[in-house]
Design brief:
With 294 residues, the protein is an all-alpha fold. Helices cover 76% and strands 0% of the residues. It is flat, with a radius of gyration of 27 Å.
Length: 294
């Protein structure tokens, strides 16, 4: 008995130390992998910034020249002067603002209806609504183009605003998961006070889903601001171009001014970075809380 009592504490101590070393090693390996993955993801953006400060002779030199020598700061004002970026920025800003505002309104209304209002066929309609997320965008391009042509909206910003503002299945799904977690007692108390669906939605539902609304608003902003394929399909007049489409204008038939294009790309990314950095907390909070509610 004495020998066992003498050995067991030592073995336990050794097992604890081995387990602690194993946990430390696993954490170190995990953090190394995360750092490598983060660098791989951020490398294209770093290369874009460095290329925006080079001239054409430095961009395609082999072996690659990482640090610009000299730094060509004039690429930024030259890129702004080469194309009507002020008008493109204005177009992108007001299109994105309208899409974000109407997406939050329509998606929150649909989410409240699917989550809290019992009507015939609600579940079937919601499943069909979510099924649209599985349809590739390429499938709807031609039908949507024909619809816009029949409406006479081609080469106008309505082709970008209306579809983006009135239909966002992902936003409805995310908000519905959040609304479902709101206690029924709040609605019952409001109904006893004589409140209808509109008042419950406006005074109870909307204030309680602000984190999810913030996350959806930020996602919608980034998606709309960076949208390239839709303006490319529907817009023809340079005065109607958005920022991503205008950047594509730096590519000529035979050559492309990559220095100015990189500089313009860096300028165009600034609003998205500012929005993301300022609202990063809301994105994480909205997604995490919505996941727990669902």
């Amino acid at each position: 008995m004495e020998s066992k009592l003498d050995v067991n504490p030592g073995l336990q101590l050794m097992n604890k130390k081995a387990g602690k070393r194993g946990r430390i090693a696993s954490k170190v390996i995990l953090h190394v992998l995360l750092v490598i993955s983060a660098f791989i993801m951020i490398f294209p953006f770093i290369w874009t910034i460095l290329s925006s400060l080079k001239d054409m002779s430095q961009i395609f030199v082999i072996p690659p020249k990482w640090i610009p020598d000299p730094f060509v700061w004039s690429n930024f004002p030259n890129s702004l002067q080469a194309m009507p970026f002020d008008l493109a920025y204005l177009n992108s800003f007001y299109i994105t603002a309208i899409i974000v505002a109407f997406t939050l309104l329509t998606a929150s209304m649909a989410a409240y209806a699917f989550a809290k209002i019992n009507f015939k066929g609600a579940n079937v309609l919601f499943i069909l609504f979510l099924a649209t997320m599985m349809i590739p965008k390429q499938v709807t391009m031609i039908p949507l183009y024909l619809v816009m042509d029949n409406l006479g909206w081609l080469d106008t910003h309505l082709t970008l605003i209306v579809p983006g503002a009135l239909f966002n299945a992902f936003a409805v799904f995310l908000l519905r998961q959040f609304v479902m977690g709101i206690p029924k007692e709040l609605e019952e108390a409001a109904i006893m006070d004589g409140a209808g669906f509109v008042r419950i939605y406006w005074n109870i539902i909307l204030p309680l889903i602000r984190p999810a609304l913030a996350a959806i608003g930020i996602f919608t902003f980034m998606q709309s601001w960076n949208n390239f394929i839709d303006p490319l399909i529907y817009l023809n007049t340079p005065e109607n171009f958005t920022v991503p489409l205008l950047l594509n204008s730096f590519k000529g038939l035979y050559t492309a001014d990559w220095s100015l294009m990189m500089a313009g790309t860096v300028i165009s990314v600034i609003p998205v970075l500012v929005v993301y950095i300022v609202a990063q907390r809301h994105i994480i909070e909205g997604i995490s809380i919505t996941g727990m509610k669902g």
